[in-house]
């Protein structure tokens, strides 16, 4: 059983692109093509359907791939247990995070963690909370730093801190001297919206979602990076909303103004369960949640 071949097929399925898979896994494109052809011959069925926009899984592959994921996971767990018996913690941890949290917290956490566990690899993915939750539930992420979502959940959420949403304006803006501001007053000015991860810049951005779309903004500018958005605000192109954590950690010349009716987000670490958690994942979790 060659799980490396399974990893290639899964990567192609996730990226929809042979070239991207070759780049990610360090193969030539011809090698990736050959591996897929070998798998199709071994399994006796077509695995990929090729089109103008890339490749997608065949119906047979859709059925088989979840078992491939299971086999890879089982093999990795077995290797981790062998390493554990030999006193070595190794492995890979896939952690998802909001960009503001990954910028503010993770570099320091990872530096300290790496000095204690040099044989554990960390793979970071940045998205908005809704997408991070989906990736956690499908098993594509092990740990997630995200906002707390309402309602009962099938995963554990350890609260870490609360983070107020603030209005952000340039130092030259008429609102810059205000001690607080209402959303209604803020909407009178051009607005800069932004989203990270897989969100589209034409959809509702993080600022609108943060206040539950309660305001009809005059959106003049959209982008897919919060740092870029804050830079646009600093140039007095418009106003926006941000988290206090983001403003404090980004070295950008803007003014953060509390909202007159506070909007608070709760931030924390989400994971499916501590039961049967791989040692590498548990080690990182315990480095974050004291």
Helix-residue proportion: 40-55%
Largest sheet: 7 strands, mixed
Structural class, from helix and strand content? alpha/beta
CATH class of the domain at 162-264: Alpha Beta
| β-sheet strand percentage | 15-25%
Which CATH architecture of the domain at 162-264 is right?
3-Layer(aba) Sandwich
- State the end-to-end distance: 40 Å
> Globular, elongated, flat, extended or rod-shaped: what is the shape?
globular
> Cα-atom Rg, whole angstroms?
22 Å
Number of strand segments: 11
* Strand/helix succession: HHHEEHEHHEHEEHEHEHEHEEH
Uncertain runs: none
Number of helices in the DSSP assignment: 12
Concise overview:
The chain is α/β, with parallel strands linked by helices and 290 residues long.
Molecular structure report:
- This protein is globular.
- The protein contains twelve helices and eleven strands.
- Among the domains are: 1-87, Winged helix-like DNA-binding domain superfamily/Winged helix DNA-binding domain (Arc Repressor Mutant, subunit A); 162-264, D-Maltodextrin-Binding Protein, domain 2 (3-Layer(aba) Sandwich).
- It has 290 residues and is of the alpha/beta class.
- The strands form three sheets. Strands 3, 4, 5, 6, 9, 10 and 11 form a seven-stranded mixed sheet that branches. A two-stranded antiparallel ribbon has the order 1-2.
């Amino acid at each position: 059983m060659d799980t490396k071949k399974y990893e290639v097929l899964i990567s192609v399925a996730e990226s929809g692109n042979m070239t991207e898979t070759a780049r990610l896994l360090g193969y030539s494109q011809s090698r990736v093509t050959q591996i897929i052809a070998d798998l199709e011959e071994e399994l006796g069925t077509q695995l990929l359907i090729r089109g103008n926009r890339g490749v997608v899984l065949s119906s047979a592959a859709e059925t088989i791939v979840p078992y491939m994921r299971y086999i890879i996971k089982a093999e990795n767990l077995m290797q981790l247990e062998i390493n554990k018996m030999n006193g070595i913690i190794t492995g890979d941890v896939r952690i998802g995070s909001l960009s503001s949290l990954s910028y503010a917290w993770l570099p320091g956490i990872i530096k300290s963690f790496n000095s204690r566990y040099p044989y554990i690899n960390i793979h970071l993915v940045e998205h908005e909370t809704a997408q991070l939750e989906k990736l956690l539930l499908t098993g594509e992420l092990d740990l997630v730093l995200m906002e707390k979502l309402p309602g009962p959940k099938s995963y554990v959420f350890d609260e870490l801190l609360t983070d107020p949403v603030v209005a952000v304006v340039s130092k030259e803006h008429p609102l810059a001297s205000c001690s607080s501001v209402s959303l209604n007053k803020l909407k009178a000015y051009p607005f800069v919206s932004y989203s990270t991860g897989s969100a589209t810049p034409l959809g509702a951005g993080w600022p609108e979602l943060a206040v539950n779309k309660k305001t009809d903004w005059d959106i003049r500018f959209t982008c897919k990076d919060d740092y870029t958005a804050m830079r646009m605000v600093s140039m007095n192109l418009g106003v926006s909303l941000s988290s206090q954590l983001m403003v404090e950690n980004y070295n950008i010349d803007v003014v953060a103004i509390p909202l007159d009716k506070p909007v608070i987000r709760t931030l924390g670490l989400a994971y499916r369960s501590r039961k049967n958690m791989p040692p590498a994942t548990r080690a990182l979790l315990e480095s974050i949640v004291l």
